[in-house]
Amino acid sequence: MSGIFFVLDAIYSAYTAGWESVIEVSSTHHALAGDAIAVGRTLVQLMPAEPEAHGLLALMLHCEARRAARYTRNGEFVPLDQQDTARWSRPMIDEAENHLLSAAAFKTHGTLSIGGSHSVRSRQPARSADVSTGRR
What we know:
mainly alpha, 6 helices, 61% helix
């Protein structure tokens, strides 16, 4: 099943190509991020027993959930610990965490499932209550 890693890498490459296109929401690059997430969701549906597919989708969803808070209106980068959590997408975070739980159930830890898990730990202080109240 090693061929799956080439597929996962291609999906993640497409996502990262659109990751920084925050200012130009209508840009092709921005659309790539959304398309990569859609392909990731499809892959999880086709291969529900592949923990790395769940991990990749979780990683992309966690990153995408914070898109609106990543830059100021002037285009200046906002570090994660300074982002306004009220601007994070709670539904995306919940979906991402569900995929991490699915990946963890397989008791194997690959690069992507670990990466998805790391994205949760990097925002740990801003857990559920913080997101819903918009606390910084």
